[in-house]
Amino acid sequence: MGRFCLISLPPSPTTSSFPTYSLGCSLMAIEAARLSPSIAAAAFLASRPPLALRPFSLRRRFPLLRVLANSSGGDGRVVALSSSELRKRRGLSSSSGAADSASDGDEKLRSLRRLFARPDVAIDAYIVPSQDAHQSEFIAECFTRRAYLTGFTGSAGTAVVTKNKAALWTDGRYFLQAEKELSHHWTLMRSGNHGVPTTSEWLNDVLPSGCRVGIDPFLFSFDAAEELKDSIANKNHELVLVQGMNLVDEIWGDARPNPPKEPTRVHDIKYAGIDVPSKLSFIRSQLAENGCDAVVISMLDEVAWLLNMRGSDVPHSPVFYSYLIVEVSTATLFVDNSKVSKDVLEHLEQAGVKLKPYEAIISEVERKKILRQFNRENIIFAMLLLIKTLIALSRLAEKGAKLWLDSSSVNAAIITAFKSSCDMKKKGKAGEEVGEKEASSNDRITGDPSVHNGVISAVYNVSPVALAKSVKNDAEIEGMKNSHLRDAAALAEFWCWLEEEICKSVPLTEVQIAEKLLEFRQKQDGFIETSFDTISGYGANGAIIHYRPTPESCSSVGSDNLFLLDSGAQYIDGTTDITRTVHFGEASPRQKECFTRVLQGHIALDQAVFPERTPGFVLDVLARSSLWKIGLDYRHGTGHGVGAALNVHEGPQSISYRYGNLTALQKGMIVSNEPGYYEDNSFGIRIENLLLVKELNLANSFGGISYLGFEKLTFVPIQSKLIESSLMSPSEINWVNDYHEEVWEKVSPLLSGHSRDWLWKNTRPLLDV
Amino acid sequence: MGRFCLISLPPSPTTSSFPTYSLGCSLMAIEAARLSPSIAAAAFLASRPPLALRPFSLRRRFPLLRVLANSSGGDGRVVALSSSELRKRRGLSSSSGAADSASDGDEKLRSLRRLFARPDVAIDAYIVPSQDAHQSEFIAECFTRRAYLTGFTGSAGTAVVTKNKAALWTDGRYFLQAEKELSHHWTLMRSGNHGVPTTSEWLNDVLPSGCRVGIDPFLFSFDAAEELKDSIANKNHELVLVQGMNLVDEIWGDARPNPPKEPTRVHDIKYAGIDVPSKLSFIRSQLAENGCDAVVISMLDEVAWLLNMRGSDVPHSPVFYSYLIVEVSTATLFVDNSKVSKDVLEHLEQAGVKLKPYEAIISEVERKKILRQFNRENIIFAMLLLIKTLIALSRLAEKGAKLWLDSSSVNAAIITAFKSSCDMKKKGKAGEEVGEKEASSNDRITGDPSVHNGVISAVYNVSPVALAKSVKNDAEIEGMKNSHLRDAAALAEFWCWLEEEICKSVPLTEVQIAEKLLEFRQKQDGFIETSFDTISGYGANGAIIHYRPTPESCSSVGSDNLFLLDSGAQYIDGTTDITRTVHFGEASPRQKECFTRVLQGHIALDQAVFPERTPGFVLDVLARSSLWKIGLDYRHGTGHGVGAALNVHEGPQSISYRYGNLTALQKGMIVSNEPGYYEDNSFGIRIENLLLVKELNLANSFGGISYLGFEKLTFVPIQSKLIESSLMSPSEINWVNDYHEEVWEKVSPLLSGHSRDWLWKNTRPLLDV
Prior knowledge:
homodimer, 769 residues, alpha+beta, 7-stranded mixed beta sheet, 6-stranded mixed beta sheet, 32 strands
């Protein structure tokens, strides 16, 4: 069995006032996430082969355009930054050149290793993952610690540092970039390549038996930490939860960017549809049904949805850093006060939601530490704060509350803190001595984490918010429909423009085209930002599913090959995600055959009818069958959930060849329909619409149950000239014609001039065969 | 935690020389079986709603024609018995009338309860399930103890008797029959009806806390016994494994039919394809790979397949009662010596397989008991036997062998015996005292059953034979193809005959038609018997998926409604299973629409192409989609595995909406393709062919893997007039025409006269629409 040691450190004076416990998601966390229905959708595009370092949707979209909320305007409009600007912002280009970078890297490693030796740390290795404390897909800059430490700026990767070695794990799409960016002090571990060990296998290999491996417990979900603990226990290593400071932050010091302080806003009830008291009431009914007294919600989109609030702390997702604890009669939002305007405060007060500092979620159980921390500045303030905050987790534990915890998303710091509180309660001496005991206690988690000293203190279950959020109400559906039409208008204008430019042989790169697309979208009402980094891939680049063009290296788009464009937007009322593949010249018969097979899969899924209680994976085969018939396939899932004016990837539903996610598709859910085909070094094809699950009114309803189907949300033409009609059945041809007729009817009123003409031309019926 | 008590009893003088520990499968066993890939296929037709008492394929086919091997001829030809004759053979009609039956039932219950009180039994309740010790689908008459005790002759049901209550659980298809057959001493528990408790819920309800619930451990798989133990532990009841005698046998006494003594035969290598040493060698390589020293094989078809032997101990399946232990250098068949002819003995000796009495499998660990048993007759014989038999399980345990056990199929008696032996070994005193200790020991199984006193003595895994058996070799495939053509010829003759008879308005019942079908099949070379009880359902009877016509109550078949006929045969070289649905008059538009939708599902599955490693359940949706489109569905799986000249239902593969069976479809496997639709009180439709999984040679092979598809084995026309062509796509119409062309080409050479004309007429192409 593994050992699990928790140490609490007083924060260093260099620590930012923003909580030092923060971002990152280890490989293990991501592996665990695959099995968690709550974020299983995020795994929908994960590779089939073992080279999958982490689920695709968590890694596919590296910032091409780093879109930041423009705080000056306050209207949510965004500006795009080039990759070089981005790197500058990240403080990575302060030194210009590999040598400098190397010496810089060396100094960082030396500083980090000096911390290993501190008696209150005393570790032999430290793992630095990529993500934030909330399992977010997109994270704030201050949490890019792995990038800061290693110099490697790719979105996916895990750094592991021992006293004399430093290694970075990343996957195939980042091998070249990592080779360029890493100094000679780092060993690049090419995940997925034959013989490359996992991080824990490597640790078991390079460390002598019985070492102490440190992590920041905020950066690992509880499940991930458990898995790590077990896997390094093979070599009798002990997992040390280094509390109170993140070691990378210690060496980053004052240069570390400030945590985001973007203001939050109320998500208007006309878009949210259901008010906060009703949502809280529903969650409380879920608590009651499950015999729980409280739930800790740590996924940022879940907090935003539940409180009808939005923010802009991270790119692409309108969320804000926070935690929420909902109890039977109270609810507490843990958020930086400066983000809460008077309007928002009023909104929260009306819903009976109390505010506490973001840090308080953990400090409530880490009393001693808080006391020390604030003592330094103002003892009175600290005492007042303590009176306010000494109630949540520890109070829950003390009163024997049963807590609902989603251990696949809630981080190890919170869960171990709660467990500590439960232990304190057992000891019967809440108060004076506990802090000391806790600071030095070894928290050994073995077996069922919900049972401590025989007392069931927590229920480990998927967050009750996940499913509620995924089933859209009428207002959310209306917002999604409306925003999709405006998005379709922007795309029609864009494609019209692009076709004309290519026709005139204007040289345009993949990046320039993505920037122009952003301009068209920015003109639409309610536009906020892109919902992910645009994937703009010409020719062979389109075959790289995770393609990340850079201004320096990207291709020009011409008329000799296929062009794949996967993009989306956040609007005030909805979120979009669409992929089209086009050819501006003459596609080869091979390309047309493949395109047609992908389209047939897209149509088969779009047309599916299925009984209630059908999990998404049952339908996945419908999207692949046409490709399988000729021995082709694609190495990603077919559909992910999409939030309503929220995250572009959400769970719990998905449509994938992965069979683990048993979440049934339900009326009101939104999923993407995006089969593809990728021919290495040649071309890529993907056709993606968003679909709303709806109840059908059929002639029969065998079994007395509902039968469900899909309603399209996306209305942008599919390039007819890529369709090999002779392969299509009459009903498939009718599908294309009906779709294009609907596109014309819905979108043409929003267009004029060239783009309207373009839409007309591109929605003409295919000739029957 | 539940308690698990093992008691060993000296056999009563009335006990037959055939082992008293024998058949039966509890509800729990069946529930467990659902999750076991090894027999998951057997669950393919299980109902979706909770009323499923047990998997459909285990219950769907109750003897309509009880087909017994004709031992006088020795040619394997069979004779059909009527239901009434059957009941007579079962000794159930010795008393004629409900009153007699009731008093008889009362006397049986009184006798059974007297046994409860015996000091060496001391139980408060006894559970009597339906099946044999090998989880067989079809069982020998001497094992129909539940029917003997209760008077209820249905194939599915579990009896539970307490000191003052007696209850029988059965499912919807048997409610009426059970009401007629049960005396007033019995309470009928209508499984699946709202509020009806399970057997263990009922026991927990009617017994005061802390009672002893007895079972014959041979009649429960180890998993099932574990589940039962846990579920009754809620009320602090103890599960008592009553060894050494079956209490029903005690009261059945001399009237109990003799166990089957049918001779076994060698399954010719020209049909088996692979000789026994090669098969044993493969199993031994599997043992080595899994770090095991021996495997206990208890499924009868697995023994038959592995040893290239066949028997006729039970109807429909060419198997013989036996166990097999394969060790690294030896193999031991536990079978009644009288069944083994000189030829078979030679065959076994050549393969290095030793013979032991069937009983020895367990007596080897139950030394004391054997000693007592044989002491009574001949002490010298007993000693000699002991010397021979005191080696298998106990020797394995004593030498610390690691045993491969499929706890979903191997019964609790064997596994607990092995565990006892391991315990003996631990005690270090094999021999004199052990028997006594064992007889009074409480065998408490808690947690991982493979670990006893910290020593891993067994590996619990699906039988290594199951997968090997399911992947057919070339000879088996050839035999299956050949036997299917002869079967098709018999069916063409049959359908031609039936059409003429109905046309002439000859009155024929469902049972008479099934008998006539048997006659046509009997004329074919190599015919042995039916592979299951024919389902012959006209009109509303066709809608009863588990329909069991009886001569007394069945319908006449006319030309006003659909007629569903599901039948199959055992031939020397293969096993068939085919369903056709026809109308001899004019089908309604509704019936044609439903038939066409079922056919479309059948075609979609038949045409499926899929990558290697695809589990069957992925394809299930293809067979349902066409029905779902109009809100229809069917409450059974789509396909089950089929043995080669073996059981008509086998695992581990299946094609079902149940997602638990992850077994991939592999080249050489055989599955049925049998979507259906059933309109209550109106009509039933099912179209079933058997399919061989084959590797395809496609233009591409994305991922460098194989792509698989199906080859049809069944060649019997599908009634064209039931097809609503306007609903069919051109490619579906082509499928029907191509199939019928192939049927004509393959089967017409085997026919002449009217039946050849019939085949010609019924294989003409559909007109294109």
